[in-house]
Amino acid sequence: MTSEDLLAGSSVGTGLLEIQGVAKRFDVRGREVRALEGIDLQVSQGDFLCVCGASGSGKSTLLSLVAGLDVPSEGKILLDGSPVVGPGPDRGLVPQAGSLYPWRTVERNVAFGLELLPVSSAERAKRVDWYLAETGLSKLRNSLPKQLSGGQQQRVAIARALACEPEVLLLDEPFGALDVQTKEDMQVLIRQVWRDTGTTVVMVTHDVEEAVFLGQRVVVLESSPGRVAADITIDLPTDRELAVKRTPEFLALRARIEDLVRAQHNKAG
């Protein structure tokens, strides 16, 4: 089975993710804290966008708004022209910790979201099988989360989010707690899954090297409040191996974005 076969009948749309004039403010002990201000972004279907910024730049807050877990104080977020007003199957979220159900096997964790959708048992089994294979988990399908490594648990979380075939996959620093070798393995995996499925990806990361390796675009946020400081196209080959991290082009992009993040951090301080 190919990805085209699997996705032929999916509900994946062709619209934009649009973030229009979004601001988010919180009341902290009677004091207003501005987390985000005036965020304007467009993400086309099939894009891979990475969002970077120093602490206090509102990266995770922005992702939470797109996921529908919170609402903007100002502005709006649209997907396929429809307002985002809460969580939905058109967006799949993978948090920093995979949040797997410990009593469910790998297979049943991946199937969880599909059990809540009007999907036949045959279609559910087909999707689960495909995403287990895509993420290298087929031989672990009967294992429990406690029997898995950190990287394997994150693979399950990614497979679970993708099995519902969302239009947008949202990743909130999903590899931050992994060792360097496992993190690089997961970076290669997520680019492979992105290429194979054509799913739009929006990823928050504090790791600039990771953002440059994964993204087609990297957005750098200012801090306190978070604003878009730069939106940079990553002019590297679509098919990337880890060796690209040693090329002059990659190193130049990484240095440029690291300087931007540092400048925004120093400005906020």
UniProtKB/TrEMBL annotation:
Keyword Transport found: yes
Keywords, comma-separated and alphabetical: ATP-binding, Nucleotide-binding, Transport
Entry superkingdom: Bacteria
Database matches in SMART domains: AAA (SM00382)
ABC transporter domain residues: 17-248
InterPro entries attached to this UniProt entry: AAA+_ATPase, ABC_transporter-like_ATP-bd, ABC_transporter-like_CS, ABC_transporter_ATP-bind, P-loop_NTPase
Gene3D superfamilies hit by this protein: P-loop containing nucleotide triphosphate hydrolases (3.40.50.300)
GO function term, MF aspect, one: ATP hydrolysis activity
Protein name: NitT/TauT family transport system ATP-binding protein
Organism for this UniProt entry: Kibdelosporangium aridum
